[in-house]
C-alpha cells in the first residue's frame, strides 16, 4: 500500500509547521507543501490540481485557506478542518450564537449595525465593555471601552474604515479575569492538554505577550471544550475559556490554532498526536472524529 499523500496548506513555515511536517514524514506520509501564494486552481480541470489524499489546513490567510479548502472538498478530498467548520470558527457572531443555542456557557454578547444602536446596546451591557472585530485572531483590533464617549470614538472609527466587517459591531461584556485565561487543545474526541495564558494586560493572547503555564485538565474543563468544538464542527481546535464568577465560559473556538505556547507547558507531543490523527483520517477517508487512544 502506497504512503498517504498529505497536503499541508501553508502560508509560512513557523515552529508548529516544522514540527507537523517532521511528524508526518516520520510516520511514513508523503508530505506535499501547498503554499497558498503559489497555488493555482484550474476550475475547469481538477486533474491539474495537486494530487493529495487529505489536506491539513495550516494557512494563516483565512480567506485564501477557505477558498482552497472548498475547492479540494469539491474534488472529493477530505480536509482538516472542513471548510464549513473553519468558516463558522472565523465568524465570531455565528460561533457565539451556536454556542449559546447549544446551551454552552459563553459571555453575553450583542450585535448591532449602526453607531447609535451599538451605543444603546452598550448601555444594556454596561461599562466597561469590549468591542471586537467579527473576524480575526491574535487579539488584534480589540477595544475595551469605559464610557459612551470612548465607545462612540471607537465605533465611528470602525465605521470610517469602510469594510463590511467593520460595520458589524460585536459587543461583549467585560470580564475582570484573574490575569489569565485558559487555552484547551482538542484533537478529535480528545483534550490533549491545557494551559493558562498569563498576562498583565487584559488581552491574554500569547501573540500579545502572554506567558503560558500548565493548567490541569479537569472533567468540567474537558467536557466544556469538547462540547464547544463539536458544536462548531471542528476536529483540531483550540478553545479559549475564561474563569468567571459563574464558572468557566467559552471565549472563542479556533480552527488553525497555534500550539507554541502550549508545548512549553506539557510533555505531550502535540504535533505527533495531530499527525497520528491526520493519518488515521486519511486512511478512513471523509469520516471525521477519529478516536485516539488515551
Quick take:
The chain is α+β, with helices and mostly antiparallel strands and 294 residues long. It has nine helices and 13 strands. Helix 1 (15-26) crosses helix 9, helix 2 packs antiparallel against helix 3 (83-89) and helix 5 (115-125) runs antiparallel to helix 6 (148-161).
Observed structural traits:
294 residues; 4-stranded parallel sheet; disordered C terminus
Description:
The chain has 294 residues and is an alpha+beta fold. Helices cover 34% and strands 25% of the residues. The chain has a five-stranded antiparallel beta sheet with strand order 11-10-9-12-13. Strands 2-1-3-4 form a four-stranded parallel beta sheet, sandwiched between helices. Helix 5 (115-125) runs antiparallel to helix 6 (148-161). The two termini are 27 Å apart.
SSE layout:
Layout: E1 5-10, H1 15-26, E2 30-35, E3 54-58, H2 62-74, E4 79-80, H3 83-89, H4 92-101, E5 109-112, H5 115-125, E6 129-132, E7 143-145, H6 148-161, E8 169-173, E9 180-187, E10 190-198, E11 211-214, H7 219-232, E12 236-244, E13 247-254, H8 260-263, H9 270-284
Parallel strand pairs: 1-2, 1-3, 3-4
Antiparallel strand pairs: 5-8, 6-7, 6-8, 9-10, 9-12, 10-11, 12-13
Helix pairs in contact: 1-9, 2-3, 5-6
Helices, by number, come to 9
Based on helices, strands and strand pairing, what is the structural class?
alpha+beta
Oligomer: single chain
Average predicted confidence as pLDDT = 90
State the order of secondary-structure elements, H for helix, E for strand.
EHEEHEHHEHEEHEEEEHEEHH
Amino acid at each position: 500500500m502506497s504512503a498517504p499523500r498529505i497536503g499541508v496548506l501553508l502560508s509560512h513555515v513557523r515552529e508548529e509547521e516544522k514540527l507537523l511536517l517532521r511528524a508526518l514524514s516520520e510516520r511514513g506520509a508523503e508530505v506535499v507543501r501547498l503554499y497558498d501564494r503559489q497555488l493555482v486552481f484550474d476550475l475547469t480541470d481538477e486533474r491539474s490540481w495537486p494530487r493529495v489524499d487529505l489536506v491539513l489546513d495550516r494557512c494563516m490567510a483565512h480567506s485564501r485557506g477557505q477558498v482552497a479548502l472548498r475547492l479540494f472538498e469539491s474534488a472529493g478530498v477530505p480536509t482538516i478542518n472542513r471548510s464549513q467548520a473553519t468558516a463558522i470558527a472565523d465568524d465570531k457572531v455565528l460561533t457565539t450564537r451556536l454556542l449559546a443555542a447549544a446551551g454552552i456557557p459563553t459571555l453575553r454578547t450583542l450585535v448591532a449595525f449602526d453607531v447609535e444602536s451599538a451605543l444603546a446596546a452598550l448601555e444594556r451591557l454596561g461599562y466597561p465593555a469590549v468591542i471586537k472585530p467579527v473576524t480575526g485572531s491574535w487579539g488584534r483590533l480589540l477595544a475595551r471601552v469605559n464610557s459612551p464617549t470612548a465607545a462612540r470614538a471607537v465605533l465611528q472609527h470602525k465605521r470610517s474604515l469602510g469594510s463590511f466587517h467593520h460595520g458589524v459591531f460585536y459587543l461583549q461584556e467585560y470580564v475582570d479575569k484573574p490575569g489569565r485565561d485558559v487555552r484547551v487543545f482538542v484533537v478529535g474526541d480528545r483534550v490533549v492538554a491545557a494551559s493558562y495564558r498569563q498576562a498583565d494586560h487584559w488581552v491574554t493572547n500569547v501573540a500579545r505577550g502572554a506567558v503560558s503555564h500548565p493548567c490541569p485538565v479537569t472533567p468540567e474543563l474537558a467536557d466544556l471544550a469538547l462540547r464547544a468544538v463539536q458544536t462548531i464542527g471542528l476536529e483540531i481546535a483550540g478553545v479559549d475559556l475564561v474563569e468567571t464568577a459563574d464558572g468557566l465560559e467559552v471565549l472563542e473556538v479556533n480552527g488553525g490554532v497555534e500550539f507554541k505556547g502550549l508545548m512549553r507547558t506539557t510533555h505531550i507531543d502535540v504535533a505527533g498526536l495531530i499527525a497520528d490523527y491526520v493519518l488515521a483520517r486519511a486512511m478512513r477517508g471523509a469520516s471525521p472524529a477519529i478516536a485516539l487512544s488515551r
